[in-house]
Amino acid sequence: MKFNLVSTPKLASWIFPKRVWAFPTTTNSVYLTFDDGPIPEITPWVLEQLKKHQAKATFFCIGDNIRKHPTVFNAVISEGHAIGNHTYSHCNGWKTGFSTYVEDVLRCDTILKDSKKRKSVQTSKLFRPPYGKMSSRQAKILQKKGYTIIMWSLLSFDFDASISEEKCLQNVLKNIQPGSIIVFHDSLKAEKNLRYALPKVLQHISEKGLHCRAIE
Q1: 69 catalytic, yes or no?
Q2: Please, which residues bridge with residue 215 across strands?
Q3: 35 flagged as catalytic
Q4: Contact assessment for residue 208 and residue 172, using Cβ atoms and an 8 Å cutoff
Q5: Environment class of 95 (CB within 10 Å of its CB; exposed 0-12, middle 13-18, buried 19+)
Q6: Exactly one of 69, 81, 86, 185 is catalytic; which is it?
Q7: Alpha carbon distance 205, 184 (integer Å)
Q8: Positive or negative, the Cα torsion across 25, 27, 28, 33?
Q9: 159: which of 93, 167, 190, 212 fits an S-S bond (Cβ 3.0–4.6 Å)?
């Protein structure tokens, strides 16, 4: 199944009910998530924007980026944001063998466990598959190992260089609602759209009286 729509179809959450696609609409919160970091070129700027609006978020980190940029990763932790596993090497579950995929996730987990010795780190085992692609078998084994698989209800498409900055922004503003899990990327690929859209999204959230929460 390809998840290529801005808003995740209800069919996807029906087929994979054990994965988290959104939170109850009765909440007054939204959940910003950032995939593919941390990197020094983008992540510190994201942290600045979040701090301006007293917003908390969840960062699904690539293990190799944590290894290469520990200072940036520590900054995410010190700001009180939640941390999730996004595999060590950003591997595509549909193109990666079962054992290799699980080993890649666990390799990232080893790095995260070292960081979790710090009291300020979110201790929940959150996982998001790169590209949103993983097999049911891969998902089942990770869930048995205690992972909560976090998907999304809303894609910004910030990573898509073919769309304009304004289109990226409207993807979010036209679809956001209480309980939304929104995907952005703190990556070079997404930089152009992210730098335009994120401040405006945060302002919109504040004006609507919503709160940005980290996933626990």
Answers
A1: no
A2: none
A3: yes
A4: no
A5: exposed
A6: 185
A7: 15
A8: negative
A9: 190
Give the active site residue among 35, 36, 109, 158: 35
Buried residues in 124-145 as b, exposed as e (16+ CB within 10 A) = bbbbbbbebbbeeebbebbeee
Tokens of 211: 């709160």
CB neighbour class for 36 (10 Å; exposed up to 12, middle 13-18, buried from 19) = buried
Identify any residues that bridge with 127 across adjacent strands, giving them in sequence order: 85, 149
